[in-house]
Specification:
Helix content is 31%, strand content 22%. With 816 residues, it is an alpha+beta fold. It binds alpha-L-fucopyranose. Alpha-L-fucopyranose (FUC) binds next to loops.
Length: 816
């Protein structure tokens, strides 16, 4: 059916007024050149390019925590690759394996006898989840906007302004100029695209391309390979829509709108249970006609697209939602507002979060280059501004991928173009998910942690059954991965999956958040999670057969094989460190809340009996209870699990445990500097925490360079994994200000490359906000804001002083 409509366009005067009022980015083209329109974005908060995106890792991400788009900025055919964060494969499922309980004592006995291979074989046969893998995150597919008569453009520029969270593409053809803006609005729950033509018209077809199973090339999973592509720009690039997909339907939905409906994928024998819907509404001043594949637009000068999507997911147990009703309601509410109203609400909402922190590390000549060229040159050129941009981009990405009411950021945040993404783009909770949230509080984005809190609450429910069925234990447990359905049983194989500390590490991550807020209601909400996680370990820790204290068994030091044919072992260092923190947090929270005094006595006793950290024959911090590090088959392994105690924990630190810090340095040197993206970021955090600013900076250069950063500044594992962006952001902040051991450390790891700078709006533990300026590598001024009367001990170089927040809520100090 084809139907012509002449819909209401945006009033030209209204748009002009909006353009003048919003100096950040005028909505109207006129005598102004593209360059002047773009000059409004602050260079330190903007990614920009002189060519459209060829590869996906060149496209620019927008997101509202629930809906995401990758914007390619192409000329002949624009591509918006779309995501909705509940569109995962499968349906509610229960992967617990009841066989595990009977096998558990045998596996433990084999490990106690040093029969690692036999223990692994038995665990593989009897203790793993069914199915052995979890459900992958998916994609909504693409919108392709194919233009009728494109020409090679001049004065092309595309950018992502982090402060307004708007992706813009501008170019000219002949005398015409074209401008597009894309943003994902959290207040209105729509992705908005605005297209404008000056002295030309917009003539294009909008088509929908259903989700595809793109496989990431296998070689990208390894350590090698430069992720940067060098290719000539193909201005006329067009992609195929491809054949229709079974179960996907496209129908008209009133004037100038179409509705797509479909269902998710099944995976590993778990049936597809989710339905999804997407609604696209076009509003413009040309002729808008519905076609079989979408919409056709002719002769327009201004077009606004409103895209909304939803699935039937309600919770990990409930998939009874009505996505069609939802997208209609949300889409129709949005189309009653003008473009300017939507844009203003979006910008105000984003600014409330993004505007909370600024960072200046100095500007050099390289800062004037397009972002891809800066990345390409960064390992040889001095470009401190790139590190500051990386921090602001990390903050932008967290706001875009993790908002209250949504899902936590996955391995790819929110952005994924395949139904078969690398590692399923799910939640790897033996480092990656926790790393995603390392920068949240320090960078003033504590509100973005809410989805993680809710995920852990749901995981604790599933994990209680896993604890009971598979270990005969109380409390709850989660292993090294989880997904939308909050599966908590061990997956993939014992070498990776049989690790019981995923839930505990998540709990510690949430307590780090509490420590930044000191919010009593949050503590009361977290305590049951801590209590359940601790309960599991009280029930399952065993006495080390050699008398070294309480240990986990079976377990492993995440993903690192020891020399005896497995990674399975008894009591790896990381477990003891994580459980030491968990028990400590449980005690602290219980005492504050004045509950469970008797039970907390047991926790206190167990904590004191945990096997301590050990220094091995090479002077290294032992990764395992035995001194196996020297013979480990992969001495440069990416995970540095036994250094959890240094960062993020802080239980090992230069002030209280200097011998262990020295041992940790030996271990970290052995591991080497450049690893996978996230593992490189962790090394930045660690060298910073150890007070080695120049070393941290060297490692950071590797992370920001073209081997570990794609042209769109997404982190390259490779392939793309967002944890490196977040871990790197945390690492840069850690070089400037640290909070551990009840003290605030100012410039504890300032590299010589950043002699002058300023950070404003850093959040420290104890609900404190810190502004710090330095010159010539020395502290110049400090402002701390907080509750009047609150105090913190500050270390600045060799100085130590106590800050007392004054009656007006501030403390100030200048250095001469
Ligand atoms: C862990 C890591 C890998 C990768 C994957 C998602 O398995 O060891 O490097 O990050 O998670």
């Amino acid at each position: 059916m084809t139907r012509a409509t002449k819909p209401r366009g945006f009033n030209r005067r209204e748009t002009l007024a909006a353009g003048l009022a919003l100096s950040a980015s005028p909505a109207v083209l006129g005598a102004r050149s593209a360059a002047s329109a773009h000059a409004q974005a602050r260079p330190g908060e903007c990614l920009w390019y002189q060519e459209p995106a060829g590869a996906w890792t060149e496209a620019l991400p927008v997101g509202n925590g629930r809906l995401g788009a990758m914007v390619f900025g192409r000329v002949a055919q624009e591509r918006l690759q779309l995501n909705e964060n509940t569109l995962w494969a499968g349906s509610p499922y229960d992967p617990d394996n009841p066989d595990a309980l009977a096998a558990l004592p045998q596996v433990r006995a084999l490990l106690a006898q040093g029969k690692y291979k036999e223990a692994t074989d038995l665990a593989s046969a009897r203790m793993m989840a069914k199915p052995l893998s979890q459900m992958p995150y998916g994609t909504l597919g693409d919108l392709l906007l194919t233009f009728s008569n494109p020409e090679q453009p001049k004065a092309y520029r595309r950018q992502l302004d982090l402060a307004s969270a708007i992706a813009t593409t501008e170019y000219g053809e002949g005398t015409a100029r074209y401008r597009r803006e894309v943003f994902a609005s959290a207040p209105d729950q729509v992705i908005v695209m605005r297209l404008e033509a000056e002295a030309g018209t917009l003539d294009f077809d909008i088509t929908y391309r259903a989700p595809r199973a793109l496989r990431t090339p296998r070689e990208q999973f390894g350590e090698g390979g430069a992720p940067q592509t060098t290719r000539p720009t193909d201005w006329m690039l067009r992609e195929e829509v491809g054949p229709p997909k079974a179960g996907v339907a496209l129908v008209g939905d009133g004037s100038g709108a179409f509705l797509v409906t479909g269902h998710n994928e099944s995976s590993a024998g778990i049936p597809a249970g989710l339905r999804y819907a997407m609604r696209v509404r076009a509003i413009g001043d040309g002729t808008i006609t519905q076609t079989e594949q979408g919409l056709s637009i002719r002769g327009a000068r201004e077009v606004t697209l409103l895209i909304t999507a939803a699935t039937s997911y309600v919770s990990a147990r409930d998939i009874s939602g009505d996505p069609v009703a939802k997208v209609r309601a949300v889409g129709q509410a949005a189309e009653r507002k003008s473009y300017d109203t939507l844009r203003r609400a979006h910008m105000a909402d984003h600014a409330a979060l993004f505007g909370g922190m600024t960072i200046d590390l100095g500007t050099r000549a390289a800062a004037a280059l397009p972002t891809n060229q800066r990345i390409a040159a960064s390992e040889s050129e001095d470009d401190p501004g790139l590190a500051a941009l990386y921090v602001q981009y990390g903050r932008y990405l967290l706001i875009a991928s993790s908002r209250s009411g949504g899902q936590p950021a996955t391995l790819q945040g929110l952005w994924n173009e395949s139904t078969l993404p690398p590692w399923d783009s799910k939640y790897t909770i033996n480092i990656n998910t926790e790393m995603n949230y390392w920068p949240a509080d320090p960078a003033g984005l504590g509100l973005c942690i809410e989805p993680l809190v809710r995920m852990v609450e749901e995981l604790a429910v599933k994990g209680a059954k896993t604890a009971r069925v598979m270990y005969g234990a109380g409390g709850w447990v989660a292993h090294h991965n989880t997904d939308l359905w909050r599966a908590s049983a061990p997956i993939d194989g014992p070498l990776w999956g049989l690790w019981p500390c995923g839930g505990a590490w998540l709990c510690n991550t949430l307590m780090r958040h509490w420590d930044h807020t000191r919010d009593g209601a949050l503590l009361a909400r977290l305590y049951p999670l801590l209590k359940g996680a601790s309960h599991f370990f009280l029930d399952t820790l065993i006495d080390d057969p050699k008398g070294r204290g309480l240990v986990t068994s079976p377990s492993l030091s995440p993903e690192n094989e020891h020399a005896f044919g497995s990674s399975l072992c008894v009591g790896p260092a990381m477990d003891r460190q994580i459980i030491r923190d968990l028990f400590g947090h449980t005690l602290g929270a219980g005492e504050r809340l004045k509950v469970d005094a008797d039970w907390l006595g047991k926790v206190r006793q167990a904590r004191s009996r945990l096997a301590p950290d050990r220094i091995g024959a090479q002077g290294q911090l032992q990764e395992w209870l035995e001194d196996w590090d020297a013979v480990a088959p992969d001495p440069h392994h990416r995970h540095v699990s036994h250094l959890y105690g240094v960062y993020p924990s802080g239980q090992i630190n230069p002030r209280d445990t200097p011998e262990l810090i020295e041992a940790a340095k030996v271990s970290l040197r052995q591991r080497g500097d450049l690893s996978t993206g996230w593992a490189t970021a962790w090394r930045v955090c660690l060298w910073a925490r150890m007070g080695e600013g120049d070393h941290a900076h060297e490692v950071l250069k590797g992370l920001l360079g073209p081997r570990r950063t794609y042209p769109n500044m997404f982190d390259a594992h490779p392939p793309f994994q967002i944890d490196g962006n977040f871990g790197g952001t945390a690492g840069i902040l850690e070089m400037l200000i640290q909070g551990w051991g009840d003290e605030l450390h100012l410039l504890p790891a300032l590299p010589s490359a950043w002699p002058d700078g300023a950070i404003r709006g850093f959040r420290a533990r104890g609900a404190l906000k810190v502004d710090l300026v330095w010159r010539g590598g020395r502290h110049r001024s400090l402002v701390v804001r907080g509750e009047p009367g609150s105090t913190v001990t500050v270390r600045a170089g060799t100085e130590r002083f106590v800050v007392v927040i004054g009656p007006a809520g501030t403390f100030e100090r200048q250095w001469g």
